[in-house]
Target: Delta-aminolevulinic acid dehydratase
Amino acid sequence: MDKQLTHVENQHVLHSSIFNQTLRDWQTLKTEITPRNLMYPVFIIENDDSVEPISSMPGVSRYGINKLKHHLQPLIEKGLSSILVFGVIDKLPKDPLGTNADSQENPVIRALPSLRTAFPTLTIACDVCLCPYTSHGHCGVLFPDGTINNPASIQRIKEIAVSYAKAGAHIVAPSDMMDGRIGSIKQGLAEHDLRHKVAVLSYTAKFASGFYGPFRDAAKSQPAFGDRKCYQLPPGSTGLALRAAKRDVAEGADMLMVKPGLSYLDIMKQVKEKYPEYPMFVYQVSGEYAMIYHAAKAGALDFRSALSEVMVSLRRAGADVIISYFTPVVLDWIQLKSKI
Ligand code: PBG
Model:
């Protein structure tokens, strides 16, 4: 017979809450991963019938629209509900203003109507940026001395966002980090009567990160000179991240994002706690993908348990939606689990 227990002693027993799977699930419901918690980034190229594997991101490819539709179809059957689209150009010329970001030949502009028709239930977000389309590879319009021309940049970003919205994007997601771009885009959408029909997902706290390397290869958007430290946030700057969130909320952002994920969990938690009424997105970026992929391939860690743990940690830190190149694999896991 046990001694008479105090309440405190009872509270200190945790194992009684986790002795089977159902009990463990009850402790972790807020970190569940369902298809609604995932957004899948995809790269669209000019040639409609090509697939180009990306060597720095094994398992990820750039697709022409016809191939992309084939790639997406089974994923949508597994519950995929949203994608984030990036355009990549090779043959179309790049110039200082990024003219081909929203020309009629732009692969995203061309693909949107066909994606909307093929997948009526799919929510389509478009990354809005200049870097894949500018000759200098920077995310804004530059003055002759190479510094950012802010008014010209946010004017251009607004035009591109409106073009994607007109072509069928449900969401426009500016990743350029120029001051004032959310307000400018909102203004542009209003001028074209799209304010009520298109949402703005702000890359709010986007850090100048070493984890974007494989993406720049994937999107062919490496800066021709210099780096992005004058417009992306310094990794240590919690204050700027919070100020950016405050500014984007004030300018009318519909949803907020922190990027990258794993190294910025504390930032995400703080932004979510400050703005709980806004859906919080996190971008598990190309370098995070490569890191897990290669570590698992080298046998250093078990792929499924490591990736699941990272996904749960992103949710635990406040992410409502995880933007991940691993989405196809995770959709498979979700499906298998629901069959058990
Ligand atoms: C472009 C952009 C980048 C990413 C998304 N949009 C790269 C950058 O800012 O250098 C990174 C995504 C990834 O690494 O997966 N502005």
In short: The chain has a mean pLDDT of 95. The pocket of PBG is lined by residues 127, 129, 131, 139, 175-176, 212, 215-216, 221, 228, 285-286 (CB under 6 Å).
